[in-house]
Each structure stands twice: as C-alpha cells, then as structure tokens.
Amino acid sequence: MKKAYNFNAGPCVLPKAAIDSAIDALKDFKGTGMSVIEVSHRSKEWDAVMDECRALWKELLNIPDTHEVLFMAGGASTQFLCVPMNFLEKKAAYLETGVWAKKAYKEAAGLGDAVVVASSADKTFSYIPKGWSIPTDVDYFHITTNNTIYGTEIRRDIDSPVPLIADMSSDIMSRPVDVGKYALIYGGAQKNVGPAGVTFAIIRRDALGKVSHYIPTMLNYQTHIDGKSMFNTPPVFSIYVMNETLKWLKGIGGVEAINKINVKKAQMLYDEIDRNSLFVGTAAKEDRSIMNVCFVMAEGREALQDEFLSFAKDRGMVGIKGHRSVGGFRASLYNACPVEAVEALIATMQEFEKLHK
Description:
Blueprint: E1 5-6, H1 16-27, H2 44-60, E2 67-72, H3 75-87, E3 91-96, H4 99-111, E4 113-119, E5 141-144, E6 146-147, E7 152-153, E8 164-167, E9 184-188, E10 199-204, H5 221-226, H6 236-251, H7 254-275, E11 279-281, E12 292-297, H8 305-314, E13 317-318, E14 329-332, H9 339-355
Parallel strand pairs: 1-13, 3-4, 3-5, 5-8, 8-9
Antiparallel strand pairs: 2-10, 6-7, 9-10, 11-12, 12-14
Helix pairs in contact: 1-6, 2-6, 3-4, 7-9
C-alpha cells in the first residue's frame, strides 16, 4: 500500500482503528447481518451507539450536566444560521478572525443587529485581535477558536459577561476545554473527531428559549434535544466513525494526553520553519495554531513554491498546499496525525533546503 502522510485540512486523517472498525461495520453491524448504513436508526443496536458516543463526549470533555450533546447535519455553515435563530433577540457580537468567522457574522447580520468587536482583516487574519472588550448589551458573543486557513488559534477559555458561543470545528478534542464557560460549542466533525456528515453541538439548556421569534423546526436546538438527536434520520455512518474515533482517543489517554502530543508536533514543525532558510511562518508567533501550521517560501524564494509542492508529493506528503485564498503551505496536525508524519515533513523540508542553498 502506498505510504501517504496526510496533512489535509478536512476531511482529515483518522485513526486506523476507527477506519478498520468502520470497514467491519459496513459489512456486518454488530452481528445484525446488515451494514451500518442500512440498519434502522430506531434499533436497539443503533441506540447503543448513540448512547456510547454521547457518553464519550461528556467524559472526554468533562461536560457538565447543564449541557446537552447533539449530533446534527448541515455542517458548521448551517450552525452559523442556527446560532442567531436560537440566541439573537436584540443584538449579537462577533470576533472576526478569519473567513469562517466572517461567514458566521454574515448570517447574524442578515437576521438582526450584529456588531464586530474586533477584526484582524487588516493583516490578512494573521493574528488574533488584542485589547478588545465584550459588550454587555448583547445576547451573545461569538468566537471561532481555530482559524484553519490562516493558522491562528485562541487557546484559552474566555471569561464572558454574556453567553459565549464558539465554533470549535477544527480544534475540538485537541485540548481541555472548560465547557461550563460556554452557552454553545459547535462544529463540523471532519477536522478532528470523524468524517464529514455530522455536526456536534454542546449546548447549555438554560440558554435556550430567550427569543420571541419563530425558529424553523430543523434549526431549533430544542427540536434536537427533545428528539435525542434523532428527530429525523441521523447521519449514521458518520456518527459511527465518530464514536470509534472517540474510543481511540480515550484509549490513548484522552484530551489531556493528545494535547501534549499536539503541542509537541506543532513545536517541532514551527521550530523547523523558523530555522529553515527557505520557509517563513505566516501567523503571529503568539497566536500560532497547533492544528494548522501555515507557512510560505522565504522572500526571494517564492519561485520555488511549486517545485517544493512536487518534491514533497513525491515523498508522500498529501494536503500541504495552502488554502486557495492565501496560497503557500499548510500542514494540518489534527489528533490522528502521527508524530512520524511531522518528522517526515521536516526531513523533506531539510532535504529541499540542501538542494537550494
């Protein structure tokens, strides 16, 4: 089998154990004689998967009893609309740190009064804004904790005087989170906790029911709480793989253990970028993401970009081309990305440097 070091930004690398289990379940789900993609979502066998997956979320993130864990469809992009539908009564506030944060704000602004507290657009979202304060006259404050395109990350849980809402699509389960500080945490699974197709939402129950307008049934969080994430047919295969991924994470020591590994991987790669004469990091050093490492060719060496991409591809590197909107390179170091892959990328960068000194 061809060796590939997968640095794709999403869908992302998944644990081999989860993939192997999914292959088995596609053939025969829990001895039912049916595939996991054809079994009834009302069966006791499927109920057990849903219960286990929900319990793993609560255990791994130490989610308090005040919060519900939901599995939905539509990706984080649909959540951008669900958030103001469920929380925006008079006014909302957003921190603008990248493309996805802008899109989240756009949906709120289209429904009501929304303000941008601070933005890093002036420097192509290469840093997290500083010195801002959260308005106290808003219904909620929204942040995007990790910015996949630009490689910046908020690695702390903000103290907010108003309900705090976070899109954690690309760094959920990568570090401990004080869930109790958030009214809502949401995201697509396809960065860290599973394949595309399922969206997670961790919501504080008492934060709901504050708006006076009608909320469309499928956009109403209460619908999915009451239906235990099965108001309609859930994305069963994606949830199954998510469950297997979380079992893998628990087996290696949980969120605290993977955080140490993630910090190590990112530091190794950033150290090489800072040392290597051919490459330069693009994110402010104090705001560097440990999930998405973004870099470009050094000044005067830009003509080598395509050559390096080809050079790296020949050595098994997959998905290191930067987002189409910014170019350069991006290595996504999600939970299941092994240290071995980072070591291989570093060796490739060093080899390329020797050829062009």
